[in-house]
Amino acid sequence: MLTISQVTKSFTGRILFEDASLQVNRGDRVGLVGPNGAGKTTLFSLILGEDSPDEGRVSVEKHATIGFLPQENAPAGEETVLEMACAVSPELTKAQRILKTTPEDSAQHHEALHAFDEHGGWQIEPKAKRILAGLAFRESDFERPAKTMSGGWVMRAHLAQLLVQEPDLLLLDEPTNHLDLESLVWFEQYLREYPGAILMISHDREFLNQLVGSIVEIAHRRLHRYRGNWDSYIEQKAAREVQQLAAYKNQQKEIASLQLFADRFRAKASKASQAQSKLKQIDRMEKIEAPLLREKTVRFHFPQPARSGLRVITLKDVDHAYGDLVVYRGLNFEAERGQRTVLVGPNGAGKSTLLKLLAGSLAIQRGTRELGHNTKVGYFSQFRVEMLDPKATVLETARDMPNPVSEQTARTVLGSFLFRGDDVFKTTTVLSGGEKTRLALVKLLLDPPNLLLMDEPTTHLDVGSIDALIGALAQYNGTLIFISHDVYFIRAVAKTVLHISAGTLTPYAGDYDYYLDKTRATSARAALTSSGKLHNLQPTVAGLGEAGAGIGDPGYKLPGMRETREQRRAEAEERKSLAKTKREHEKRVRDLEMQILKLEGRRKELTEELEKPETYEAGGAATSLNRELSAVTADMERLTKEWESLGAKVSANS
Description:
Layout: E1 2-11, E2 14-24, E3 29-33, H1 40-48, E4 55-60, E5 66-69, H2 81-86, H3 90-101, H4 107-118, H5 121-134, H6 151-165, E6 169-173, H7 181-192, E7 197-201, H8 205-211, E8 214-219, E9 222-227, H9 230-265, H10 272-284, E10 311-322, E11 325-336, E12 340-344, H11 351-359, E13 366-371, E14 377-380, H12 394-399, H13 407-416, H14 433-446, E15 451-455, H15 463-475, E16 479-483, H16 487-493, E17 496-501, E18 504-508, H17 512-519, H18 565-610, H19 621-652
Parallel strand pairs: 3-7, 3-8, 5-6, 6-7, 12-16, 12-17, 14-15, 15-16
Antiparallel strand pairs: 1-2, 1-4, 8-9, 10-11, 10-13, 17-18
């Protein structure tokens, strides 16, 4: 249905694609990935016909329709939400307007009614309402002017329009950014049954795992296709990189050998023609490019917060209601130093309300909020970008704190979140939603509180930035409580889970997989919004009364690090075993480094001997030296591979 054939495209003097090709057939589910600036948005522009390739062609099957959802900033005019969702053709939109504004007995009204019927209006409107409901619009929202709603809800209305239209090829650019958890689960299920083909850019690895049948990566200016979902792509890519690196090294070795011969003998009359032949052989080779180094996660060390007391924050007998809607009654909650807790539960259960009560951004209606000794609270809300000064530059914003870090430190952290070069001198007013989110994160990481409260921190972040955030939080030594719909992020960060439903808090003294196991969840995504009665769990946590005690029960407490004696003993044994293994690995790494250094020295000696003309005058000397050089090089490659593998394990366990 879509064919991209041998396309070359340059942008601002940089080649994005060179001889790139891709085929998308009906029913395909394809994820498009690549680092920031690789050309994902440009590829969408080429497919949509908004831009043209420098060479090659992009062709779409005759009569095939394409629908596109941009990442942000979709327009909204005077139309209502329902009209926007139903605007699948100009004729139908015009008919809808006339039907609303003309008398029923007028000729114009009758003509519009005929057009409405001819273009499927009777089927489209009920379908639009179902889709809008799935995307969490209330029935009372249907007749609201779209422009009166927030940008996120406008994006949902545009998404509804695309789903109503059902184009043959759906292009989605970060479609989950503006969806809450329940809408995301609904959307994921809807796309499973979608009749057309889908090509999507997404940072949500779980979303890609559940939906796509192949991943297309933009790398080395080409489009590389991997069969399977995200996890399969990661495995295949690693294997491919190993193969490419081996092929690259072998070719470089061959080139070096040919070049060495040419350099040595080009001035010698009897060997000049052979030397020239070697150079031509190098020129004729199809050069293998070196594998791109994967972008590292954060390696900087940002300032750490002051140590808080063991009890970080406490809510006692707290009530909170929005008008007649009671969210909490008699809420008792306590967080201890070092916890990393994710809040899960259905929409409206009170997850964001709990974060706001903890942050102090919601007034306590009844009860008390007590901060522990030396506790400093930081709240990363869903509306964090509104706190940025639109006139300040990116660099000024990052350093705007009581004790500013050095410009070098600020730029290092900014670079990890994709603000590089002159980007740091942009004013925040020109930044996209994603860029503002990244900047707000940088600002928080450079002056971190010891109680960090985060509401959907990965929204608008790409995969590299999410990995950077995970790396930063791995260093963080304070207390973290957060909400997220990103299963990958939750698994990487959370150590405990707190389920919230109907004003009741149920703690799980383990990570997200422990929670899935205890609740017998069938889906990691759906379990985030589970509202049913959770399966019987007997948490053994100090301060918790009977198993499953609710927020109103005496002694209720969020679990900290107080495990049973058996748990502590098992964990101590595991730590001892891991420490022993780590020491063994570190010793082996040191031994390997010494062996590699010796081999490097010997290789240098052998190379120097082979560069001497007299070596080739002694019978058999050159052959012997070359044989030893090959053996030394092979040993170095083998030991280096082992050294890299063990080094990665040591770093991961540091």
